[in-house]
Amino acid sequence: MNKPVIETKALTRTFSQGGQTVNAVKSLDLVINHGELVAIQGTSGSGKSTLLHLLALLDRPTSGSYFLDGTNTAQMTDDEQSDARNKLTGIVFQNFYLIPYATAVENVMLPGLYGHRARTKLRQHAEELLDAVGLGDRLTFKPSSLSGGQQQRVALARALFNDPPLLLADEPTGQLDSSTSNEILDLFKKINELGKTIILVTHDPLTAGSARRRIVFKDGEVVSDKTQQPVRNSDTADSSIQ
Ligand code: ADP
Ligand code: MG
User: Which of 15, 26, 52, 207 maximizes ligand 1 atoms within 8 Å of its Cβ, making it the mutation to test the pocket?
Assistant: First the structure.
């Protein structure tokens, strides 16, 4: 029996804001299994980024528990958490977070620099990944010479560098026009079909519609969790024209 990639039990993250308490994530019970492609959809302020940061081990919960690949993350030291983050998760952000003075290849190599592999091997692996995301002809370009969609592909290649089983993306289409969004969502789908578990958080119902499982999040709580037939944005646009 395969254990879930993610299992949370009463996961809660509370912030204090000017004397007020905000429950950004409220007593969340969530199970995500290997191979799933899940969208978590919610309006701004619903707690999506807070949840993603918890799942990526970038933040610790106020209460409740989080099992990542079967291990209770509360029992991990900070070092064990960073190790688990590097090995098990890849993260893609809305603003790409690329290093502006580094080339595409150097940006993608970054997660490998903490290990002991030879630089030439890292470079070769980064080049292969960039090729796989369709940027084989942009290896030495800096982020400022790349379009938004291309920068997001670099960020995606970087997230895949350590071959993590779990990919987490925060508003991955937030900066992109709809046709570029479709290309990026197609790429996520392909990566999912190659066996990675993917969680996309988004405010955009069309982006959320591209996933097989859609969880709607409101005020830090799940309001619905359904399996659906994935729809491509352009399919929706086409059908609305008829
Ligand atoms: P979303 O990503 O869905 O827009 P967030 O997770 O960023 O939502 O925020 C959820 C709620 O938690 C908001 O009310 C936000 O103001 C609050 N919040 C998030 N991060 C912090 C923080 N570091 N300090 C205080 N409040 C925060
Ligand atoms: Mg957010």
Answer: 15
Nearest CA to ligand 1 atom 12: 24
Closest among 101, 97, 218, 227 to 158, alpha carbons compared: 97
Residues contacting 145, CB < 8 A, separation 6+:
none
Does the pTM exceed 0.90?
Answer: yes
Distance 25 CA to ligand 1 centre (A): 9
Specify whether the CB–CB gap between 33 and 197 falls below 8 A.
Answer: yes
pLDDT (tens place) for every residue of the chain, 242 residues total: 578 999 999 999 999 988 899 999 999 999 999 999 999 999 999 999 999 999 999 999 999 999 999 999 999 999 999 999 999 999 998 888 999 999 999 999 998 887 788 899 999 999 999 999 999 999 999 999 999 999 999 999 999 999 999 999 999 999 899 999 999 999 999 999 999 999 999 999 999 999 999 999 999 999 999 999 988 765 544 433 33
